[in-house]
Amino acid sequence: xxxxxxxxxxxxxxxxxxxxxxxxxxxxxxxxxxxxxxxxxxxxxxxxxxxxxxxxxxxxxxxxxxxxxxxxxxxxxxxxxxxxxxxxxxxxxxxxxxxxxxxxxxxxxxxxxxxxxxxxxxxxxxxxxxxxxxxxxxxxxxxxxxxxxxxxxxxxxxxxxxxxxxxxxxxxxxxxxxxxxxxxxxxxxxxxxxxxxxxxxxxxxxxxxxxxxxxxxxxxxxxxxxxxxxxxxxxxxxxxxxxxxxxxxxxxxxxxxxxxxxxxxxxxxxxxxxxxxxxxxxxxxxxxxxxxxxxxxxxxxxxxxxxxxxxxxx
Length: 314
Hints:
Blueprint: E1 8-12, E2 18-23, E3 29-33, E4 38-43, E5 71-72, E6 94-95, E7 110-117, E8 130-138, E9 144-152, E10 160-166, E11 169-171, E12 178-181, E13 187-190, E14 196-199, E15 205-206, E16 211-215, E17 221-226, E18 231-238, E19 242-247, H1 249-255, E20 267-281, E21 286-297, H2 308-312
Antiparallel strand pairs: 1-2, 2-3, 3-4, 5-10, 6-7, 7-8, 8-9, 9-21, 10-20, 11-20, 12-15, 12-17, 13-14, 13-16, 16-19, 17-18, 18-21, 19-20
Family: Belongs to the glucose-6-phosphate 1-epimerase family.
GO biological process, one term: carbohydrate metabolic process
Protein name: glucose-6-phosphate 1-epimerase
């Protein structure tokens, strides 16, 4: 059997960590580590890497992997005994042997179902029982789809509240030549200004310094235009009303041990998230969130917006 017909391959990755490689017939691929339930690679039909992973990323538990698509659950900031961004990104997930039916993905052959459940150790810091399921699927044309389901399995009748994000690190050629469209005129919380609320005044978001903003009540479609590469990432989301935009820029990059000094120039985080209003589940209730990303050729002339923008607004 030729390698391109092997849609799902279980193998070992860096430092012997278990991973799954997804492949589609057009030679698109994705790589998912069971550590963190984390996508660490997404390549198009030309073998070009579309996600950023730092050259200094640690693949040694318990440190989270810097790059790809970390899963942030059950929180996004440090509170109490819970670590920043929660614990899902530095736990070992399992292959889900009894996943819920996903009729929308029935035509996709390259997918893997993962599950993370409560442990007695974790209940000391977050005293709840849950099932956190994740399906990572690669579409026939190379689209990357992540679907998460979180169920409250508490037996004591208690509800729980959580926040969630797909912390997607996109690989870009030159951050100064990147623009994000679809978030203009929206309110945002600026984490560099103590979470103060502002309204976006620009026609599109561009980058010339550190950015850490949470855009609120965002549309289901967002576009990230990489002018240098003439490529547009389309991010489509459901169940995740907010969007985080982050780049550490030079000063913060140099302070991060698992991040190269100049790597900020080649990455941008745009995260489908639920930040402002947390999700509350009663026992037996389930929440579902989804993110789909694709990469398409694009170009735009100076002072003219990419024509794709008209499609995105449809």
